[in-house]
Specification:
Helix content: 55-70%
Number of helices: 11
Radius of gyration: 20 Å
Shape: globular
Distance between the termini: 34 Å
Largest sheet: 3 strands, antiparallel
Mean pLDDT: 83
Number of strands: 3
Strand order of the largest sheet: 1-3-2
Order of helices and strands: HHHHHHHEHHEEHH
Low-confidence stretches: 70-78
């Protein structure tokens, strides 16, 4: 059971648990699953406030179909225009992207792995390929992948043809990352609001906390509204 895929019934139980205010660990124990599995499932499907079982099930089916398509494309010819690329320019761009991610607060090795995935056409690499391309140790790659999995930015996929695991970045990775960011904003807003009540809204300290809560709430709501609108529009355009 722990290694099997989540079923639609599992997802309905997750949604019920969230509605009842249960923690991720409690939901996971009820399912007999690792907490990390539940955490990734919720993070990649709208976060605690936006998780919907039916939507999560449909999204998983769609990702699975894309995975099969991607696996088939690995045996096909290179992507159009790939032969015209300057490898040195691509590496330089990946370094620039990684550096920007570092300045945004991401650990350096994690940023380098994520940037490497972004510049591959199929968004998929093995641990060995990462070691070779980044010239780092397997342990460094493993630690970075663990971090990215915890943030629901990367998932593992078994490549039966090569009998090894591949690390995959989905096309909607930034959509899910921004939803996770909005969820963190909501948590910060909740803490700030509690601080305002504790300190007293009429005091200077309480007023600062109250203003912070209002700002974080507004930013989080704007992020969620924008990315969901974008996701719906891009889904309609591609169908």
């Amino acid at each position: 059971m722990p290694g099997a895929r989540l079923t639609q019934q599992d997802r309905r139980r997750i949604a019920t648990g969230l509605a009842e205010g249960l923690g991720y660990g409690e939901i996971a124990r009820g399912l007999g699953r690792p907490t990390s599995t539940v955490t990734r499932e919720i993070a990649r499907n709208g976060g605690p406030s936006g998780y919907r079982a039916d939507h999560a099930q449909r999204a998983t089916v769609q990702r699975s179909r894309r995975s099969h398509t991607t696996a088939a494309s690995r045996t096909a010819v290179a992507a159009p225009g790939a032969a015209d690329r300057d490898p040195a320019a691509v590496r330089e761009f990946a370094d620039q992207l990684a550096e920007l991610l570092v300045h945004s607060g991401m650990p350096r090795m994690v940023a380098r792995v994520l940037a490497c995935l972004h510049v591959t056409d199929d968004g998929s690499v093995t641990a060995g390929e990462l070691v070779q391309r980044l010239r780092v140790s397997p342990a460094s790659v493993s630690k970075a992948i663990g971090y990215l999995e915890g943030q629901a930015l990367v998932r593992r996929e078994r490549d039966e043809r090569q009998r090894r695991e591949r690390y995959v970045i989905d096309d909607d990775v930034w959509y899910r990352a921004l939803l996770a960011s909005a969820e963190r904003n909501a948590m910060l807003a909740g803490i700030a609001r509690h601080g305002a009540e504790l300190l007293g809204p009429a005091t200077p300290a309480g007023a600062r906390m109250d203003g912070a809560a209002a700002l974080l709430d507004r930013i989080g709501q704007d992020i969620v509204r924008t990315v969901r609108q974008w996701h719906e529009e891009s889904g309609s355009a591609s169908s």
